[in-house]
Structures are given as structure tokens and as C-alpha cells.
Write a structure and sequence with these properties.
- This protein has 267 residues and is mainly beta.
- Helices cover 11% and strands 38% of the residues.
- It has 2 domains: 2-54, FAH (SH3 type barrels), CATH 2.30.30.370; 62-265, Fumarylacetoacetase-like, C-terminal domain (Fumarylacetoacetate hydrolase, domain 2, Alpha-Beta Complex), CATH 3.90.850.
- The strands form 3 sheets. Strands 1, 2, 3, 4, 5, 6, 7, 8, 11, 12, 14 and 17 form a 12-stranded mixed β-sheet that branches.
Length: 267
């Protein structure tokens, strides 16, 4: 299934509050609740052209895996980590597809990082190799881990440079795990103004999806709707000096999920 969060574009409509829905062809079918809970198919349907897609979920936390592709670690002069390198982005940084990434006067080096992100479907903690770790995944979406690289270096801890408002575009949809049985075999790419900046495959991850979930669950409870961003491949702006500027259009794409469109605007 393809699941979305959406608003009906007509603000006067009773369906203008955010809702979850199923995308079927060119229609969105409303469902009765969050996709990780008990829900039923509703009777209300809208055309895709009549709705605005939002970020697919509202997580309690967004956990990110840093330097999870060897070529990306190398392009910035870093060694490959021996254990998953973890950091957080706050929910306040989330925006949906087609929304604007707003540049900030506090950074001169804002750049893209296209990633596969997974959505947790069941509460989990203390997972082990003996368990079917991937059964805790509801589905997958695209995420752009927008980064103020100069702030990241200034503060040394990555939180501030990764966490500014609008610095976590997600979407366009959540594709359920049953439609992506192997998250380690997906083409991943990112384009800026139509030019390919990143092109790789999730098979090249250092720490695969299941291992990331298992490590995170050790002492940290993961809740339904939580996001885990699995890291970005090579091709980021710091390696080439091509930082984002107002007017840029970004397309972050993951095979079988879709394209996350974003635009860059001035503060």
C-alpha cells in the first residue's frame, strides 16, 4: 500500500484537517486513523490533484545514521565508523513534499543529503538477532537530511546543524514494508535543478536497516511512527563546494517509493 497524510486543498471542506489516506491510482481514500494502529477504510475519497500531501507521519523522534556509506565518509575525509553513528533531528524540522526549505542567515553552507527512511510500526526495545527485526517496520519513505555544514562543524555535535526549521523534508508517501521486502536493494538518487548530485544503492550501506533498528532499540524504546533515516551516499555539497541557494529545486528519489520535491527559498 501507499499511505499518505494529506489536507484537502479547499479550506472550507470538512476534510481540510490532516488525515491519513490510501493512494489508489489518482485517488486518495481516507482511513480512520494512523496506519500503525487499528484503522478502517473510509467512504470519503478525493482526487490526488485536490489534496496537498504532508509529511507521511508525525514522529516522536527522528533518529539518523551518519556516515553509513563508505564513499560518503571518504569524500569528507572521514573514516568508516565501527558502530552506527547516531544523531537526532527534532520533529520541528519536518516539512512535507513541495514545501520550502528556508535558508538561514546563520549558515552559508547548507546542503542536501538524500536518504531512505523507515517508519516504525510497533513499539520495540531490546531487540536481538534472534528476532525478526524488520517485522517492526511499517514502511519506508524518502527523507532529505538538510545540513548546515558550517554549523555542524562549529558546534561539533551535529544536532544544531541538522535541526533547523524546514531541514527535514519527508515524503511523498509511505510505502508499506510488504511492498519493499528488501530495503537493501533500492536505487537512491538526488538531483538539484535536474543535475544528478547523488546516485547509489542501499546495498552499499555499511550498517543495514535491520542492524540499525536493533542497535537503536538497545536501551531506547522506538515508538510507532518514529523515523530512522539510514544515511546518505556520496555526492553532498561540501565535497564539491556546490551548496544550496535560493531558487534551487531538489528531487530526492528512492526506487519504488517516489520523488520528494523541495524548493529552496531565502529567509
Amino acid at each position: 500500500m501507499k499511505i499518505c497524510r494529506y489536507k484537502v486543498r479547499d479550506a472550507s471542506s470538512p476534510g481540510s484537517a490532516p488525515r491519513y489516506g490510501l493512494i489508489e491510482g489518482e485517488s486518495v481514500i481516507e482511513i480512520s486513523g494512523p496506519p500503525w494502529g487499528q484503522w478502517s477504510r473510509g467512504s470519503r475519497s478525493s482526487r490526488l490533484t485536490d489534496v496537498r500531501l504532508l509529511a507521511p507521519v508525525e514522529p516522536s523522534k527522528i533518529v539518523c545514521i551518519g556516515r553509513n556509506y563508505a564513499a560518503h565518509a571518504a569524500e569528507l575525509g572521514n573514516e568508516v565508523p565501527k558502530e552506527p553513528l547516531l544523531f537526532l533531528k527534532p520533529p520541528s524540522s519536518i516539512i512535507g513534499p513541495e514545501e520550502a526549505i528556508v535558508l538561514t542567515k546563520y549558515s552559508q553552507k547548507v546542503e542536501h543529503e538524500g536518504e531512505l527512511a523507515m517508519v516504525i510500526g510497533r513499539r520495540c526495545s531490546q531487540l536481538s538477532d534472534a528476532e525478526d527485526v524488520l517485522s517492526f517496520v511499517l514502511g519506508y519513505t524518502c527523507l532529505n537530511d538538510v545540513t548546515a555544514r558550517d554549523l555542524q562543524k562549529l558546534h561539533q555535535q551535529w544536532f544544531k546543524g541538522k535541526s533547523l526549521d524546514t531541514f527535514c523534508p519527508m515524503g511523498p508517501v509511505l510505502v508499506t514494508a510488504d511492498e519493499l521486502p528488501d530495503p537493501q536493494a533500492l536505487a537512491i538518487s538526488l538531483r538539484v535543478n535536474g543535475q544528478v548530485r547523488q546516485s547509489s544503492n542501499t546495498a552499499k550501506m555499511i550498517f543495514p536497516v535491520a542492524q540499525c533498528i536493533e542497535v537503536l532499540s538497545q536501551g531506547m524504546t522506538l515508538l510507532p511512527g518514529d523515523i530512522i533515516a539510514t544515511g546518505t551516499p556520496e555526492g553532498v555539497g561540501a565535497a564539491s563546494g556546490n551548496f544550496l541557494k535560493a531558487g534551487d529545486r531538489i528531487e530526492a528519489e528512492v526506487e519504488h517509493i517516489g520523488i520528494l520535491h523541495s524548493k529552496i527559498v531565502r529567509p
